[in-house]
Structure of Elongation factor-like GTPase 1:
Amino acid sequence: RPLTQEEIAHRRELAKRRHAEKLAANQGNELSEKPPGENSSEVTGNTGDTKGEEQQLTGQVEIMTSKAVKQEADNKESFIAFARVFSGIVQRGQKIFVLGPKYDPAESLHKLSSQCSATNDLPLVPHMTCCTLENLYLLMGRELEDLEEVPAGNVLGIGGLQDFVLKSATLSTSPACPPFTPLNFEATPIVRVAVEPKHPSDMPQLVRGMKLLNQADPCVQVLIQETGEHVLVTAGEVHLQRCLDDLKERFAKVQISVSAPIIPFRETITRPPKVDMVNEEIGKQQKVAVIHQTKEDQNKIPEGIQVDSDGLVTISTPNKQATLSVRAMPLPEEVTRLLEANSDLIRTMEQLNTSLNEDKKTHEINQKTLDRIKEFKQKLEQNLQGRKWRNAVDQIWSFGPRKCGPNILLHNFEGYTRSVWQCLGNAVKEVSKYKDFDNSIVSGFQLATLSGPMCEEPLMGVCFTVEKWEMNKVGEMQSTSSQDSGECDTIEHQQNEDTTLTSSCTEVCSVNEHQESSQSVPKSPEKMSKHKGEVLLADCYGPFSGQLIATMKEACRYALQAKPQRLMAAMYTCEIMATAEVLGRVYAVLSKREGRVLQEEMKEGTDVFIIKAVLPVAESFGFADEIRKRTSGLASPQLVFSHWEIISSDPFWVPTTEEEYLHFGEKADSENQARKYMNAVRKRKGLYVEEKIVEHAEKQRTLSRNK
């Protein structure tokens, strides 16, 4: 039965009395060792997926009388896991399995015996550990009550899990239990800052503090970039400030320096526009100016690179042994969204294809995963329809960047059949002349999509098609003739003495130290039996492969520059609640910050308007403060990351037609939003920025000496 108010009050008094007795007993021997979890002045909670908050215990005033006790209490900050019992009874001291969100019992149970428990010595299983439940607590508002056991259906706090749980986990006495899915949050981390300590000697404390912050906050991401910077990725300006305050005052307790917020952008291409900047149709009368502009653009392209009128870029490697032709096309928006939503599935496909290509004996592919891959392929075929996308899905060579991004590489030349759909069972062993160097082309594509030509930001929604790949056989034979002789000697040596296989492998590896000996030795007799003119030896880690990577990257960049380039900005959806009298001021602040109102409706029965708008993340800093100041606190915005949106203006635009000259002037010095963003990113990255130091130099100082 539920407790009455009198019983609840009586129990509260008993709990307070017990707590006061404990404090009195501890004060008598204040320098002696204190039992865990009873006398700490602060207890932080890793609330499963909610942020730990300070719990001030009632007897804090008495503790603060002694400095020694205060220091000890400050150091004893611990995480309390916030949990709910779904079945069974949780008991203190119980040994239990900790299952991470990615734990899969189907893959792990065959490694464990049928009667195994958390008390046994267990083999290493991914995403699974064992631990002992140290303390169980009843969360009574500001207080924590120790418990011996908790039955099903109750919410409790568990101490001592900080070393086993990062953000969330499932606890079970059986390893066959499927884990709960991690909690999904509406807010996506998008704003990042680089953090470093003011005194370099404090670096270990900062690293430890960032680790604790990562555990305490479910929405923050902590990572180390390629440059070595420690980066915090947060949901927005207010969340960022809260994380930095926590890091300084609670977790790291050191002074830190914080960079300006790093706003991510994406680069893409669009179809050629049909109207110019003054909304006039691009017709014959303006063609003269446009032709002049294209001639100027062509002059920028270096020698040895051919660019067709339809954007096909042809480029050769520095040693003239290979020629590539690459074309760039914009992907439909539906395909880009589909690729973004299925990035985890694409990563799984890439891992399966890699194991198939390396002839590893992998476990049987999960039928559920195969069905998801087939469904993903069907959706791609539905969205990629039309004459220019014919057979495009079957020709997909790779995704990028990092082999799982929203860009596609297609192969459209004869003699090559490998694709990303090998894991569906239609794997064909590649035997063509391209098989040793196709990884170089894919690597060049990955590098090109990771940093675009505008401001070294990742690409999004771009499809690159390799339409021609020619290799010069004679040149390759000359470059690898020394390797030929070394491999012949190896084969003869292997036929004479079977016991010296290791030395023969060493000879092959001495010519090409990265090449796998187990693959090169059996292939060699087949190659030697062929005609000398058809020999294309695998120099897949030599200088030629490096030249192919660099050439492919350059080809992708020039193919991208041959099309109309655009920046993509990260966008917040902004929901503002405001009364009718401040509506105009809200719109003024939104329009000043490049915001766009989508919807405005009145809440029934009140005089409050709900405004839905989109706002660029780059313009959102100080937005909440400004809107509160302008409306005297009557409007409050709520910002959540929504999507990526193309900025319509061309960052490289210059007036070309007569009407544009009349409207914008010869200098066209009105603010170009895309160029402003692009130059800001280039300055931050230390890239060249094309800026005029002196502008409007009409006023000149007289050179006469002042007397």
Remarks:
- The chain has 20 helices and 25 strands.
- The first helix runs from residue 5 to 28.
